[in-house]
Description:
Radius of gyration: 21 Å
Number of strands: 8
Number of helices: 14
Amino acid sequence: MEYLDFELPIKELEEQIEKCQVIGEDTQVDVSATCEQLTQKLEETKKHIYENLTAWQRVQMSRHPNRPYTLEHIENLTEGTFLELFGDRGFKDDKAMVGGLGKINGQSFMIIGQQKGINTKMRQLRNFGMANPEGYRKALRLMRMAEKFNIPVLTLVDTPGAYPGLEAEERGQGEAIARNIFEMIRLKVPIITVIIGEGASGGALGIGVGNKVYMMENTWYSVISPESCSSILWRSWEHKEKAAEALKLTAKDMKENELIDEIIPEPLGGAHRDKPTAFQNVKDYVMKAFNELKGLTSEQLIEQRMDKYSKMGHYQE
């Protein structure tokens, strides 16, 4: 397990407990009382740290190297029934955007999401979860297929943003994202969106328009990353913590501003600390959303989606 800088007190206590247990086994001395005290202190330390995370620390949690990525979520949600589909039928297959059919509790879903990769080689293959235009066009192709066969759509958002390279702009990155937003608003089947990691800028919005939008507890959703915001305002990344607070990008902030529907709780310490529980929580919320939406007609789904987004934000004349 890798530890973030603010998790070092937890690491020290876990190492002390491990040493305590080893000493007891080697010397045959009863150290159970000491180990119990350390364990109690560990639980108190965890609770204090994780219940008082700053916005920047939430951002760090969303990027934790052990945090489950999209394909791991899909594999556990669908229990081996996932069939991946490839290509945008126009240019090529984008490895940063994955999608296909799978069953969750016996119900078929078209599942689409960004995949970052779990090691250096895979991250390069997946372009660090930053999709090109063909990735968003592949996503739209799969959504239209889902609409044709009346299959609900589940999108899993985890991206630092759409790929900003020159070749992506040449192939119409902005148009591809805008087209997805436009078409998702009019899609005739239920759309459920879950932010499972980073939700940055148009890269997230390109698959993020849903009837129900959820955020996992230790994720963020914003028009810009804290580092980029800091570099624009202060010409340096040194103020990223201040930028994170100002952007109001945490799940709690988004819920208070009525930009998402609900927050999916995570195990103490984050989704990577207890993956089975995290996957089950996501599954429960997805099925809850589906059960609320399945009785609506196509017209009602579209109307609900349009009303949802037209009411967002506050303004004064």
